[in-house]
């Protein structure tokens, strides 16, 4: 296939099986009519992913408002259950450079999904690596038990079609509005995407959140749950980059 001149190529010669293929599946799945524009794959191989090049501009308030409204549409497209992989994919995925577990059978409880597929796998890895000890693990396990018991479940919330790694670096401000890149797409809780937006800071984030809430009102107390939804990315960073992320993750676990 001849690449168009204005293309962006991600390449990793040692990519694990499915690394770029699941990303491409996620990009396609997130490309919801009326939702946030998502960069689409032009070519996918075992070691590379080619997408259109995106021109960037400074973020504006108007673009932030539109992003919030469109993100609500993307989420509302829904997913069959919590943890479901994007259409066309039938095994686990990746977040950053590490595995992201998917569920191939229905999970209707967000709390059980979050405890067993978003917290415990990374806690085990961190414990096995010596990054956390049994005392740390006890604190995290207390929270996992609360999640499994439904302490933070909301029966009114159905699984959303989420980007899964929606930190500011994966939000590209373009002349025609925001475009999304680099997903870890799955069926999840829409509050998780919103919590990720400002994990490392993002311009115009309050306008994004306000416009989102106007388009698809969030449940009472959602701001008090932001750090709970950030615990998963904190644990992935703990696994990838080490103990510098442990104090923040522990503070979250103690709080909830």
Automatic annotation (TrEMBL):
It comes from the Bacteria. The keyword NADP does not apply. Gene3D superfamilies: 1.20.1270.240, Phosphorylase Kinase, domain 1 (3.30.200.20), Transferase(Phosphotransferase) domain 1 (1.10.510.10). Pfam families: Fructosamin_kin. InterPro entries: Fructo-/Ketosamine-3-kinase, Kinase-like_dom_sf. SUPFAM superfamilies: Protein kinase-like (PK-like). Keywords: Kinase, Transferase. GO terms for molecular function: kinase activity. Belongs to the fructosamine kinase family. This is Fructosamine kinase family protein. It comes from Kribbella lupini.
């Amino acid at each position: 296939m001849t690449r168009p001149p204005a293309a962006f190529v991600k390449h990793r010669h040692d990519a694990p099986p499915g690394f770029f293929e699941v990303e491409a599946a996620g990009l396609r799945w997130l490309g919801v009519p009326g939702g946030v524009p998502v960069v689409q794959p032009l070519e996918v191989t075992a070691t590379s992913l080619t997408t259109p090049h995106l021109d960037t501009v400074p973020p504006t308030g108007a673009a932030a408002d539109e992003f919030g409204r469109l993100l609500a549409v993307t989420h509302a497209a829904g997913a069959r259950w919590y943890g479901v992989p994007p259409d066309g994919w039938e095994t686990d995925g990746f977040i950053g450079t590490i595995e992201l577990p998917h569920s191939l059978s229905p999970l209707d409880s967000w709390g059980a999904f979050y405890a067993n597929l978003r917290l415990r796998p990374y806690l085990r890895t961190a414990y096995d690596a010596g990054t956390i000890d049994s005392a740390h693990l006890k604190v995290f396990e207390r929270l996992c038990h609360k999640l499994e018991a439904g302490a933070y479940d909301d029966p009114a919330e159905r699984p959303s079609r989420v980007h899964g790694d929606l930190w500011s670096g994966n939000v590209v401000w373009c002349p025609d509005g925001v475009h999304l890149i680099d997903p870890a797409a799955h069926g999840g809780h829409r509050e998780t995407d919103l919590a990720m937006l400002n994990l490392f800071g993002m311009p115009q984030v309050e306008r994004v959140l306000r416009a989102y809430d106007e388009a698809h009102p969030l449940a009472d107390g959602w701001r008090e749950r932001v750090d709970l939804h950030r615990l998963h990315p904190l644990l992935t960073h703990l696994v990838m980059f080490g103990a510098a992320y442990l104090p923040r993750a522990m503070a979250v676990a103690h709080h909830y």
